[in-house]
Design goal:
The structure is a single chain. This protein has 450 residues and is α/β, with parallel strands linked by helices. Strands 1, 2, 3, 4, 5 and 6 form a six-stranded parallel beta sheet that branches. A five-stranded parallel beta sheet has the order 8-7-9-10-11, sandwiched between helices. α7 packs across α11. It is globular. It starts with a strand and ends in a 5-residue tail after the last helix.
Amino acid sequence: MNILVLNGSPAGENSITLQTVNYIKKNYPCNEYEVLHVGQQIRRYEKDFAEAKKALECADLILFAYPVYTFLVPAQLHRFIELIKENDVALQGKYASQITTSKHFYDTTAHRFIRDNCMDLGLKVIEGLSADMEDLLKMQGKKDAILYFRHLLYAVQHDLAEKALPVSETKKDLEMASAPKHHPTKKNRKRIVIVADLSEEDQRLKAMIDRFQQRSVYRSEIVNIHQFPFQGGCLGCFHCAADGKCIYKDRFDDFLREKIQTADATVYAFSIKDHSMGYRFKLFDDRQFCNGHRTVTLGKPVGYLVDGEISKEENLRTVIEARAQVGGNPLAGIACDEYDVDRSIDQMAAELHYSLNNNYTQPANFYGVGGMKIFRDLIWQMQGLMREDHRFYKEHGFYDFPQKKMGTILAMYLVGGLMHNEKLKKKIGDNMTKEMLKPYRKIVEHMELS
């Protein structure tokens, strides 16, 4: 596969993000790679775009690699995207993905910006990798980079990318005959629970669930919360903080733990109501406070079956992504009946099965990192009351307080002092960037192939 890397960093070869790309390249040398330093050489491409146009049109996969700058991409990469559009580059049907490094401050909006522009260009978009700046120096970060790229190759091979939506296309009916039944085998003993808000009127949603079950190679069962006898919504009374038992006597806490949380994966099915998942699902979510702030389904993938025009509900899409991120659940996708419903369901099922078979979890982005830091501080302060939460957070290493990293803090004081000395500052020049890159380049140069 011909992979074109668009390095959007103004630092060019000295980009930390590019080191992650180099690490991947050494693991997967069978692909053809070409790197354009578009961030560093933007003035050159403004004068003559012919070389870049040829490289773009010859690529099978376009990989955007850049540091997140102030909510979005660096201005130089932003300009390069404008040049792609101004020069009418033919990219329809090609694949695109992205790799970023940041401290996860609004990496979500940067990724969404690239996604939306790729959609403008007719590209097929595959979920990107949002890495911390120091991830490549850690075992988990290196593993995440390889798992991301392995999934990227799988998505290209099976055409599991998000495609631009045709403007003229309207809601399609399901063609159930085209979905052959998959019977779970002895090897596939994992169980998927489909949590649905399903009334008798929701026939389209029922048809979507039927198709998903036909496409699934795993056992699945429907849990219809529309029929659960809720006595009421969460009261915020904290009676469950000590033992996890809700003050209501409807046994929802037992129902949740025995019927839903024992599954290996969860699919949520609902019809859009009032710009949300509806009252019953909000009731369901609020009553899960019997778990406190523990992400008890950590690592278990989730998918969504949605009846309605999800493209018009940006806030709902954000809630769905943030819900998965904070819970530590790999998001297999949102299957919607708005456009090409058959393919949408089949694609989500394939992604869900990939996550289950490969234990694939996307690294957390701003929603996950920021949300967990808020809960981290909250549980630390309330550990005397929320003892089960406190135990859970300790066991999973969520108490990653930066105040404890005294070595890093002292090193930054030393560097800051040096940079305030004008003579030393001139002497150091560009060497600081090179020194910062040394540990990353060492990882790439001395890596062992996985």
